[in-house]
Amino acid sequence: MRPDAPRGTAAMGASQTRNEHKYHDLADKSGFSLEQIENLYKRFQQLSDNEETISREQLDSIPSLANNPIKKQIVEAFFDKRNQHHNEVGSCGEIGFEQFLMVMSHFRPPSLKTTEEEKETMRKVKLRFLFNMHDTDNDGIITLVEYRKVVEELLSKSGNIEQEAAKAIADAAMLEVASTNVPHMAPDDFYEGITFEHFEQILKGLEMESRMHIRFLDVDTPTLRCGKSTS
Amino acid sequence: MDSSITRRTGVLLIIFTFSSLLRDSRGDVPTIQTGGIVTILPPVNPDNAPQAYTDAVQEKMPVFTMNYQRIQIPFEITLWVLLASFAKIGFHVYHKITIWVPESCLLISIGLIVGGIMYSVHEEPPAVLSRNVFFLYMLPPIVLDSGYFMPTRPFFENIGTVLWFAVVGTLWNSIGIGISLFAICQIEAFGLQDINLQENLLFATIISAVDPVAVLSVFEDTSVNEQLYIVVFGECLFNDAVTVVMYNLFNFVALMPEVEPVDVFLGVGRVFVVGLGGMGFGVLFGFVAAFTTRFTFKVQEIEPLFIFMYSYLAYLVAELFNISSIMAIVTCALTMKYYVEENVSQHSCTTIRRVVKLLSSISETLIFFFLGVVTITTDHEWNWSYILFTLLFAFVWRGVLVLTQIINPFRTIQFNFKDQFGLAYSGLRGAISFALAFTLPENIVRKQLFVTATIAIILFTVFLQGISIRPLIEFINVRRTNRNLDTINVEIHCRLMEHTVAGIEDLCGQWSHFYWKDKFMKFNHKILRKILIRDNRAESSIVALYKRLELQNAMEILGNVSEDISTTPSIVSLYEEKKSSAKPKKTFLATDVKNMHDMLSKNMYKIRQRTVSYTNKHALPNDSHSREILMRRHTSIRCSLRPGSFQSSVVPKSHKYFSLPAGKSLDVKFPPGGKSCTDDLETMSEVVYHPRPSRFGRLSRSSSRAMMPLRRLNTLTEAPSVNMLDERTREERSKSGRGTSRKNSSSSDSHIAAPHRPFHSYVENDSSSAYNIRSGHREVEEEQQQPPPPTRAVTPRNNAAQNPLLRRPQWNPKK
């Protein structure tokens, strides 16, 4: 990847003006600043080998992601159309920079200026993102099977946890959700899974907006990037 | 002679009653104190008493002798500690006082009163607080406490800001105040010209040691946001370190005849050496301590001792080399805590926490108390201008506004104005400032003025700010964090978010502390844990929480012995602990408790219990603890009443399914070896006390005895004639009556039916047999469409589970 990096920058310099306009659009859409977009664009090109789009395999092969227990879910989230705010479902094979950016925009930190309402929407968007990570079959419900899978994967990297334990935990968690949300379940009822409303309910007290965020850098940090591209 | 002791004790009691009845009129004072105060700390009168005896018995063998001198010092210290502790009890007689008035205020008040009494009878305060006593005995417990209970995760997430405020903030404070005061001293009208710059700086350093214990407990109560909390916590901790370093430095400088520029640089260099050196020693001793506890499981009775000895050793060695001993002990505690708590037994862990709290609260109580006494009994040099300007500058140079402006751009979650106000207002001065001022060397000319000014500023901040901070925080409505989210879902999602964020960071090539955390965790797993932890089973925080919840619940079910549970570190403050200890508790034999631990932790009670307790949001979580047990019992009793019904119809209609029906298809699909084998195993384990391989590593250690404590279930009265027919109605009733307290537990709870029991059987059954869930994805989906047919697959488990319960009567005699 390393040798490509300079070429990418040069190419971008040439089409600077065209990009400028495009960036403004993207900035409006995603809420990032122009500098951040530019940074992310560089990163995008690095990951995509200067192609217009990026494929699953390319994301899968990022070495630093190899140790992430939920790597699969994370990568999948990028190709999930639900995360693009277009009211589409399903997943796409490749994503362009815009889609990449839109997924990233879920992780913008709140600033001092964000109002309470904006925070509330941010929170909802973030919750939706997490929910979509669980809900792989896209039926609006996290079933026990789906939930178990995530828990198992979460625990998979932390040593020799038996599968049983992971399962028991998922079951317990599910039960917790069920009882929080459907307190008066009739004995014959069958709790199919967590809907988004229930999901919101169980994570009500959790400070999403201040936890699930990334500091997107405004300035270019060549050192980090170099270290990255060689790794 | 005997009477002297009894009198002394009597006096103590009188003082106690007096102090606890603060609301009483002050008119009582003279009558009480004339009687006894003279004797509480009598001038040592060695000749008097023994003389009388020797006269009486002449040369014969003395039948009764007394040697007060010999025991004087420990005796007096004991009395002081006891008096202060009594005062603490007194505060809680009327519990509302402690909510609105911080404890430090009350202690100082008591100190002031006792001081007043002593003053009126011209009694000297005991000269216990010397420099050595303070630095070698009083300070270590206080800092060990804050180091040990430092909430690690938020601390490392905010380490930059914490250090910024602690180090730069303190320097800013002390230099700012020092120079401003020096400027004031130049004004002739105040008559302060003899205080030079070094002394001013020394004084400024002393009063820039903030001690917001009172504030922290307020913050905890109102659950302000984590960032604010941890910054104040960290500030108080590291600020002590910085202050003491600076204090020693300036103490040295103040005594130098003249200061050359090169000394300033040497001084700065020294600060770094001292700070980093302290850290180094701390980490070193922390690891050694952790390593030692690897081998202490055979000597559990002295396990906690290692922790204290190593921390103290770190402190002393750091003192030996004149590097920051506070840094040493704090880093030592931080380093070892994580490993130690995994190595030592549950009880040792509790003991450690308790004793750390105990020691620090003794120290602090004594210092505050003493502060009160000293305020009255010593001579003061009152200089209005100096003291007023000190107050003013201390407030102005608190400097949070400026410092946050600098740090804010580097933070992702920035401090808003309210947070900044909270930060600025939490600048209470406390015990450390006083002790530092009081132990100033005598050759500083205006020592008395410094002591007076320090006391003034402490009293001012503790009383005024300490009392007003709670209403203010509530009034301005600082952003809050809900810190009581101990649910599995929250924990899972926290982890999920952490990993997601780390992953996204990797993707966009921009790393923050998540990245470093990841790296450290890897290092920790690969190397540190292997070396330092005896029973190395890597454990995710989710599993840890899960276990803790279970355990906690299990313990709560059996009589609020929740005190013993502290498997994972949490933000435990004195205050919280106090609250929990206010709960009534039954006493069990230690072995009983241990057995209960083992058995109940094995059986996942908490989770199932939660389903009950959360059904009514307004109910307290401990409303219905014993229900789970009853659920099992009901089912078992029910089954036993209808023998022969196991085969088909036992799975009651009240079966509740979660996503999957009762594990049936999986059992059917992977039956032959696996299922029967596990079932047998379980059956055996439950009936014959066979040690069954537990799901949860550590807890399995003594699972062979797991079933023994079942006899404890006797605490719940038996409901012998449970009958299937009115099951439904009872269930309904139980639902409506959920709000009722569980305090009248046994009898009333036994009416409550067991709505969730079937799920339990399902979980166990399923988890034991459905290990192929991953590969069986397709099957699972199929299965979802199937109706949940009651099958034999569940019943054997039922059978197994109930047997021990049915056997219970046989165990009765053992009790």
Number of strands of chain B: 1
Shape of chain B: globular
Helix content of chain B: 55-70%
CATH class value of the domain at 121-476 in chain B: Mainly Alpha
Number of H/I helices of chain A: 12
Look up the CATH topology of the domain at 121-476 in chain B. Answer: Na+/H+ antiporter like fold
Query: Overall pLDDT of chain A, averaged?
Result: 71
Structural class of chain B, please? mainly alpha
Structural class based on helices, strands and sheet pairing of chain A: mainly alpha
- The CATH architecture name of the domain at 121-476 in chain B reads Up-down Bundle
Proportion of residues in helical segments of chain A = 55-70%
Element-by-element helix/strand order of chain A = HHHEHHEHHEHHEEHHH
Amount of beta strand of chain A: 5-15%
Number of helices of chain B: 35
Describe the main β-sheet of chain A briefly. 2 strands, antiparallel
Q: Gyration radius of chain B, to the nearest Å? A: 32 Å
Distance between the termini of chain B: 49 Å
Largest sheet of chain B: none
Number of strands of chain A: 5
Quaternary assembly: heterodimer
Shape of chain A: globular
In words, what does this structure look like?
The complex is a heterodimer of chains A (231) and B (815). Chain A is mainly alpha-helical and 231 residues long. Helices cover 58% and strands 6% of the residues of chain A. Chain A is built from twelve helices and five strands. Chain A has helices spanning 4-14, 16-30, 34-48, 56-60, 71-78, 97-104, 116-134, 144-156, 163-181, 196-202, 208-211, 222-230, and strands at residues 53-55, 94-96, 141-143, 190-191, 193-195. A two-stranded antiparallel sheet of chain A has the order 1-2. In chain A, strands 3-5 form a two-stranded antiparallel ribbon. Chain A is globular, with a radius of gyration of 20 Å. By secondary structure, chain B is an all-alpha fold. Among the domains of chain B are: 121-476, Na+/H+ antiporter like fold, CATH 1.20.1530.20; 490-537, no CATH class. Chain B is 67% helix and 0% strand. Chain B has helices at 2-20, 29-40, 48-57, 68-93, 95-100, 103-120, 131-148, 152-157, 159-185, 197-206, 213-222, 226-254, 261-293, 303-320, 325-343, 346-377, 384-396, 400-407, 417-425, 431-438, 447-476, 488-508, 513-532, 541-557, 574-581, 590-602, 605-613, 627-641, 664-669, 671-688, 727-736, 745-749, 757-769, 777-785, 795-811, and one strand at 657-658. In chain B, 45% of the residues are buried. The model of chain B is unreliable at 1-7, 9-54 and 561-815 (pLDDT under 50). The chains are: A mainly alpha (231), B mainly alpha (815).
